[in-house]
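Example for tutorial group B:
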């Protein structure tokens, strides 16, 4: 078969011109009619609209992705509002759960096995055989996927989906990135008992054996592709922070769950503070859900409060974590290392309503994956203590959200400032149209990655992350009641460019890049596909 039809980066399908068909030896291998890519986009979108479920649409798009990358990305860009929720959150969750059952394509990913560290080098060599440059890897072990838990090797779809968003949002070249999944077994009995599951049917390794494997992977990847951006995604709570801390000062790396979600919360928080007209020193933040994402959000918000003038101790005191045992307190023997910094010297308070009454937060963030936990009583109490309560139920997918935006607006009599994790269509309440901001990390990490790669930054610092958050918040304009606190998905490309510029400039300013500010426009443009 002709390589121009087999290789998804070369294949243009029916859009090969007559000259190209002759040059590449395609005469007789395609129908004679040359179809413009615009016509192909229109035809395929009409086909998509016929499909009944979002997952069916996702499978349809996945076939295009694996045969014709140019057409896939042009199609998604043309219908970004409609298709972003299909190629990523929230439909990606079903792609993960069904990956083994519906397997059709290896997705151009690198599959590693913790039982075979000796294969890391040859596996990476095989996966990158046609690559001269590798800009970014998105790496997962599938233990903590999107709030739906441990899905083992099926988590590869998270890495694939994230990299797809990188290209849609920031233009990162899809032929210079690599999705990676580390098969470390699974603790999900549903997979262990599934005859069609494609991963190892063993329980997960933990501790030094596992971390030694990660060490070997990082070392080999860095040796082969010095400076490659390592983007960690959906690792379990026990490993995510350890891995980030282990490498953050050695290589160019960040964890989207720990750092990215927190950065989006800073952008939303900053805009909410602006709308409230209440100073940062008077903010009290309650984070419902104290796992990897919750602790990461707390850490980033602490950094932001310090940036805004609070001492570290004052910043910590303004942030309250809530887990399955209630308010995180120092007397709780189950407190994790990440939670410990924010644990309070307080008596245990179990239910959320009582916690709100006790601490009277100005901001309530939900990242627990526990549907319906922001009840009418919770919202009513938040509204009692605040003229404009900020309530952010950001758990994904939609059915795991702590509350629905429309309910929060109704229960708060239209007062609440709401941000959600999944898309919410505009709706009316009273005489106001509410457009709900989505805390979609797609507004953050593609621009962050683009800025880091363009600057060839040596590491990813807290300063870069804060500048990324400020770029999102400062760029977005809140004009009237009902407006969203964050940019709309239609502004994805512009937002990504602003983030990339802010990150690039911070890297140069802090001498983490050998580039100059004058080189920035060309450096960023050259990274785009």
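The residue assignment follows.
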């Amino acid at each position: 078969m002709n390589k121009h039809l087999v290789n998804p980066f070369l294949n243009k399908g029916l859009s090969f011109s007559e000259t190209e068909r002759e040059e590449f030896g395609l005469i007789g291998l395609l129908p004679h009619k040359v179809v413009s890519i615009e016509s192909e986009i229109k035809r395929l979108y009409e086909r998509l609209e016929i499909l009944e479920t979002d997952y069916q649409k996702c499978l349809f798009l996945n076939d295009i992705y694996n045969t014709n990358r140019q057409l896939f990305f042009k199609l998604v860009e043309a219908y970004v509002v409609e298709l972003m929720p299909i190629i990523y959150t929230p439909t990606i969750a079903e792609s993960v759960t069904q990956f083994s059952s519906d397997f059709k394509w290896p997705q151009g990913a690198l599959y590693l096995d913790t039982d075979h560290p000796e294969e890391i080098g040859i596996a990476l060599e095989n996966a990158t055989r046609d690559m001269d440059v590798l800009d970014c890897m998105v790496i997962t072990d599938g233990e903590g996927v999107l709030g739906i838990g441990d899905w083992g090797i099926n988590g590869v779809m998270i890495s694939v989906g994230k990299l797809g968003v990188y290209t849609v949002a920031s233009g990162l070249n899809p032929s210079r990135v690599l999705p990676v999944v580390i098969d470390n077994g699974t603790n999900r009995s549903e997979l262990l008992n599934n005859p069609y599951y494609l991963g190892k049917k063993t329980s997960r390794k933990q501790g030094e054996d596992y971390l030694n494997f990660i060490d070997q992977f990082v070392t080999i990847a860095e040796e082969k592709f010095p400076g490659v951006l390592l983007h960690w995604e959906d690792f379990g709570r026990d490993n995510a922070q350890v891995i980030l801390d282990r490498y953050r000062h050695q290589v160019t790396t960040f964890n989207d769950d720990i750092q990215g979600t927190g950065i989006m919360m800073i952008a939303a928080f900053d805009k909410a503070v602006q709308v409230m007209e209440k100073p940062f020193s008077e903010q009290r933040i309650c984070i419902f859900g104290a796992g990897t994402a919750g602790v990461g959000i707390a850490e980033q918000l602490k950094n932001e409060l310090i940036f805004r003038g609070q001492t570290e101790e004052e910043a910590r005191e303004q942030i309250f974590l809530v887990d399955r045992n209630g308010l995180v307190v120092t007397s709780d023997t189950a407190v994790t290392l990440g939670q410990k910094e924010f644990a309070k010297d307080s008596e245990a308070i179990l239910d959320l309503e009582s916690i709100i009454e006790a601490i009277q937060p100005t901001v309530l963030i939900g990242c627990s994956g526990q549907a319906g936990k922001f009840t009418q009583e919770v919202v009513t109490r938040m509204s009692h203590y605040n003229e404009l309560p900020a309530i952010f139920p950001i758990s994904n997918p939609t059915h795991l959200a702590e509350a629905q935006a429309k309910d929060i607006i109704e229960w708060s009599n239209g007062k609440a400032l709401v941000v959600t994790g999944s898309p919410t269509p505009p709706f009316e309440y009273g005489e106001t149209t509410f457009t709900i901001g989505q805390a979609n990390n797609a507004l953050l990490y593609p621009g962050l990655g683009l800025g880091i790669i363009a600057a060839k930054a040596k590491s990813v610092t807290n300063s870069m992350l804060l500048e990324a958050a400020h770029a999102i918040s400062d760029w977005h304009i809140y004009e009237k009641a009902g407006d969203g606190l964050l940019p709309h998905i239609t502004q994805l490309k512009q937002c990504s460019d602003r983030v990339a510029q802010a990150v690039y400039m911070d890297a140069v300013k802090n001498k983490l890049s050998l580039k100059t500010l004058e080189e920035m426009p060309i450096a960023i443009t050259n990274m785009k596909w």
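The chain has a mean pLDDT of 96. Compare this with the pattern of hydrophobic and polar residues in the output above.
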